[in-house]
Amino acid sequence: MKKTTSTSIPLYITFLFMICLFILIGNAYSSYQNLEKLKANNDWMEHNWSVKDKLKDINLLIMDSESSLRGYFMSGNEVYMRPWEIARGKLESDFRELDKLLQDNPSQIKNLAELRKLYDSKARVFEHGLATYKEFGLTGIIELAKVGEGRDVMDEIRLLDIIMEKEENEALAARRQLSYTEYQDALFFGTATNAIALLVLILFYRLIYRSFYKQRGIENALKTANDNLESTVLKRTEQLSVLSHHLLNVSEKEKAKLARELHDEMGSNLTAISMDISVVTEKLKDKEPELAKQLQRTKRALLDTVDLKRRIIEDLRPSMLDNLGLSASIQHYCEEVTAIAGIAYAADITEDFDTIDPAWSIALFRITQESLNNVVKYAKATEVKISLKRTEQGLWLQVLDNGIGIQTDAISKPKTHGILGMRERALLLGGSFSVKSGPNNRGTVTETFIPFKEQ
């Protein structure tokens, strides 16, 4: 019976996650509310200080005005009138601002209205004093002073200012008390939240701790299994590599054997047949001209067959590879194929490479052969360049064309482009093979590198 493994998250982990989520949301909401309350308290305190500052400004302006008028009465210099003139405009704006600041406080609005009346009364006293001074001079002012006109008004203004400032102080004290209470509540809530969060974190730590060691055990088991698997795969890869190398060698030997048999046996037979046809044709030329012509056509077909045989032999095992070496074989093959395909050909091969291992020669020739066939079949190129060079590390072969290029996914289709076979030949000799786009993303370039064996 097949065992089914559940991949769902355990319920207790989901439960703990939801608790953490709610704690975080609650903490965030609480912090937001506390910040809003703190902002409201700061705004309220600024409002209280603004009211108190305006009350002090009004009281100071009235006192400055009274002092300046006394200086004017004593000296007669109109410079002393300047503070009173400034105060009249400034007091109007201060009263308007106070009215806006106190619009939510009916008690203070009432006190402000009373203060405004007292200011108007005091202003009338100032105006009356100025008129008396202009008409009777300092004597009239002295008489007014004896009467004590305006003294009670100033006392009432000071008293009312003290009352309004006291109410603001009381409101400020109440706000501070409320803020302290809210702070105590926030502190309690925050402490409780942090305690719960700490408990949840401890639970998570224990779960993660247990899960870590459980996972470590699973990883160790997997590592052991992977090591065993890698060892098995490595052995199988080595076996497949040896088998592949053996099959390639067998294939090349069979091709060489078949090429020799075709050359020796079939070649001699075809030559004999050609000679016989030539003799018979010569004898029938005068007596049976029609038969002679037919035999000549047969001889031409036979010669075409001989040429086909030669090409098959060259494909199976290039005779030039054994007789003239790798460089000449590559150049001869490339010249023939590009001439038939109508492609311009250039070679950059500066050595004969006569001393290299025969297995290297056949591998490099086959890779060149397959690469050039792909250029002719798929690249739609007009030029191809073959480079074969010796470096300090090994032999380097490159086939470069100016065709349409190769798609990235085409590299994974070895059956279509013979890439797998070329790569396998290079790997069996300890080398590397790569296919990529040419310079400026034009054409395709195949590169093969086979390193020299260490002595």
TrEMBL record:
InterPro entries: CHASE3 (IPR007891), HATPase_C_sf (IPR036890), HATPase_dom (IPR003594), His_kinase_dom (IPR005467), Sensor_HK_TwoCompSys (IPR050482), Sig_transdc_His_kin_sub3_dim/P (IPR011712). Keywords: Kinase, Membrane, Transferase, Transmembrane, Transmembrane helix, Two-component regulatory system. The keyword Secreted does not apply. Pfam families: CHASE3, HATPase_c, HisKA_3. The chain crosses the membrane at residues 12-32, 186-208. The keyword Oxidoreductase does not apply. Signal peptide: none annotated. Residues 261-454 form the Histidine kinase domain. SUPFAM superfamilies: ATPase domain of HSP90 chaperone/DNA topoisomerase II/histidine kinase. This is CHASE3 domain-containing protein.
